[in-house]
């Protein structure tokens, strides 16, 4: 009678259908494998550490009566007094209102434009024409806000091209650059002209990742251009669109410090005061650094809440958002 060899049993984790436990030292193997990629991230990590995380130490001034000569160590600690003063400041709430209104207008009028431009460029068959148009659309991104505002002043200002044309035909003139009611649309138009071309880069990358065989199969089934765009292109871009929307909402309270600062005198404080300019004028210019730091911390916390809420909403609609949930 021959002895039988007992059958090998799988580890408990594998029997339950789960992943095998990580072997000791596995992270060292991954570290050696990905060392080139990790080295490439070092400059970005250093940049974030120096310009994003290290300055956060200065937020302690929001809870102090900070004196530049006494420094952090010897300045008087006042707790939440700066925030109480902030919440009772009507100018601050006016800045919050302007920030939210301008951000909402830009979200509605600016965010869809890079997506539409990417879809248009994707339909251009001639590579030379597409490359030329993309270069022209990218170019304003490299202009400073001073130059952008100057261009708009030459076109829409009191002595600009628009009013010159209106005078020539005997019509009433309008100075768009000093119109407080139109300011939110003006800054949105400036942002579109300057940044929309640069914003299409991410969406063009998303389009390039779509499997071209899907278009060929849809065309063979008789689907037209619009149907292919609706059923293939847009679903293929959906994840990137949601991601960019979440990031946009996280940056919603930053509506252009330089842009607002340059045009503040033209339209007045009531129309152009946003959270960034409020922190600058009432913090740095007036040497009230604690008050400016409190306004900046308020903006940062509100931005974090917006990011988390938008990411939660993305998960509710089945998208990854900023990160992929563990239960998916």
Could you list some keywords that capture this structure?
328 residues; mainly alpha; disordered N terminus; two-stranded antiparallel sheet
What does this structure look like?
- The structure is a single chain.
- Mean pLDDT is 84; it is low at 1-8 and 13-19.
- The radius of gyration is 27 Å and the shape is globular.
- The protein is built from 17 helices and 2 strands.
- Helix 8 (127-138) runs antiparallel to helix 11 (183-208).
- The chain is mainly α and 328 residues long.
- A two-stranded antiparallel ribbon has the order 1-2.
Low-confidence stretches: 1-8, 13-19
The average pLDDT score comes to 84
Number of discrete helical segments: 17
Provide the gyration radius in Å.
Answer: 27 Å
Q: In sequence order, what are the helices and strands, one letter per element? A: HHHEHEHHHHHHHHHHHHH
Q: In whole angstroms, how far apart are the ends? A: 52 Å
Number of strands: 2
Neighbour order of strands in the largest sheet: 1-2
The helix-and-strand class reads mainly alpha
Main β-sheet: number of strands, strand sense, barrel status?
2 strands, antiparallel
Topology of this protein?
Elements: H1 12-15, H2 26-33, H3 35-53, E1 64-65, H4 71-74, E2 76-77, H5 81-87, H6 90-109, H7 112-123, H8 127-138, H9 145-156, H10 161-168, H11 183-208, H12 212-220, H13 225-250, H14 257-267, H15 269-272, H16 275-285, H17 289-316
Antiparallel strand pairs: 1-2
Helix pairs in contact: 5-17, 6-11, 7-11, 8-11, 11-13, 13-17, 16-17
């Amino acid at each position: 009678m021959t002895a039988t060899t007992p059958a090998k049993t799988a580890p408990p984790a594998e029997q339950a259908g789960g992943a095998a436990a990580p072997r000791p030292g596995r992270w060292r193997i991954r570290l050696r494998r990905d060392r080139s990629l990790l080295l490439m991230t070092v400059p970005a990590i250093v940049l974030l550490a120096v310009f994003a995380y290290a300055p956060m130490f200065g937020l302690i001034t929001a809870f102090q009566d900070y004196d530049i000569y006494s420094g952090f160590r010897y300045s008087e600690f006042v707790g939440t007094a700066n925030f109480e003063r902030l919440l009772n400041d009507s100018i601050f709430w006016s800045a919050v209102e302007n920030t939210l209104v301008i951000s909402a207008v830009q979200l509605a009028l600016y965010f869809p434009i890079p997506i539409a431009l990417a879809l248009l460029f994707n339909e251009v068959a001639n590579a030379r024409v597409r490359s030329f148009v993309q270069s022209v659309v990218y170019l304003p991104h490299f202009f400073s806000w001073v130059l952008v505002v100057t261009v708009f002043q030459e076109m829409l200002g009191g002595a600009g091209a628009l009013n010159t044309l209106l005078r020539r035909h005997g019509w009433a003139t309008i100075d768009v650059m000093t119109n407080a009611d139109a300011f939110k649309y003006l800054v949105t138009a400036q942002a579109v002209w300057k940044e929309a071309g640069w914003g299409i880069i991410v969406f063009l990358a998303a389009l390039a990742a779509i499997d071209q065989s899907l278009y060929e199969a849809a065309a063979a089934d008789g689907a037209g251009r619009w149907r292919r765009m609706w059923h293939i292109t847009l679903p293929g871009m959906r994840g990137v669109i949601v991601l960019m929307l979440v990031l946009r909402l996280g940056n919603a309270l930053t509506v252009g410090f330089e842009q607002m600062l340059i045009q503040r005198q033209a339209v007045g404080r009531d129309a152009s005061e946003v959270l960034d300019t409020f922190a600058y004028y009432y913090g740095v210019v007036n040497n009230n650094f604690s008050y400016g730091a409190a306004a900046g911390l308020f903006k940062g916390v509100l931005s974090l809440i917006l990011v988390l809420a938008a990411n939660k909403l993305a998960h509710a609609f089945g998208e990854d958002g900023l990160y992929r949930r563990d239960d998916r």
